[in-house]
């Protein structure tokens, strides 16, 4: 159980538990959560419904570093598995969007990595063919990156604006060690 002062992730919002409100609404106890990266956002979550994966403690520093170190070896989303029956690029894009949504709904930072890695690889391929990133890929990459960076900022104790550079540097070092 969480208590006031704890840092938690509710769905995809990194929050501080501000208080436990007893018999707050319809006789039920609620957690009052204050989002750390969304100004003035307060969330009220029924205590008996506040269970993983919907509400969980933020990653520890050790877990955050392990996640970052796993990125170099992380799998991408298998586009070939999505292609059967997808006889148009639009249908493939729709299936990719569904896969991105499915991974986001797990509320797990580990499921954000394949989204980011897949979009990155797709963007490199498209760029090599003289094409731009798709709107769907851009939307989901930005969303996954922001969600992951919010939690990593808290877990690593660094400024939100410095997380991306830290992440890129650490992944590059991991890839260099792997070679």
Question: Can you put this structure into words, describing what you see?
Answer:
A hairpin with a 2-residue loop joins strand 1 and strand 2. This protein starts with 6 loop residues before the first strand and ends with a helix. The chain folds into two domains: 51 residues; 118 residues, Methane Monooxygenase Hydroxylase, Chain G, domain 1 (Up-down Bundle). With 179 residues, the protein is an alpha+beta fold. The chain contains six helices and five strands; from the N terminus they run E-E-E-E-E-H-H-H-H-H-H.
Offer a few descriptive terms.
single chain, 179 residues, alpha+beta, Methane Monooxygenase Hydroxylase, Chain G, domain 1, 2 domains, 5-stranded antiparallel sheet, 6 helices, CarD family transcriptional regulator, CarD-like_C
Task: Write the SSE topology.
Blueprint: E1 7-10, E2 13-25, E3 28-35, E4 42-46, E5 55-57, H1 61-70, H2 79-82, H3 89-104, H4 112-128, H5 135-156, H6 160-178
Antiparallel strand pairs: 1-2, 1-5, 2-3, 3-4
Rg (CA only): 19 Å
Number of domains: 2
pLDDT under 50 segments (min length 5)? none
Strand order of the largest sheet: 4-3-2-1-5
Q: How many β-strand runs?
A: 5
Order of helices and strands: EEEEEHHHHHH
Overall pLDDT confidence: 92
- Could you tell me how far the N terminus lies from the C terminus, measured between alpha carbons in angstroms? 43 Å
What's the tally of helices?
6
Look up the CATH topology of the largest domain: Methane Monooxygenase Hydroxylase, Chain G, domain 1
Major sheet, described briefly?
Answer: 5 strands, antiparallel
Helix-strand makeup class = alpha+beta
CATH class call of the largest domain: Mainly Alpha
- Beta-strand content: 15-25%
Instruction: Report helical residue fraction.
Output: 40-55%
Give the name of the CATH architecture of the largest domain. Up-down Bundle
The best one-word shape is globular
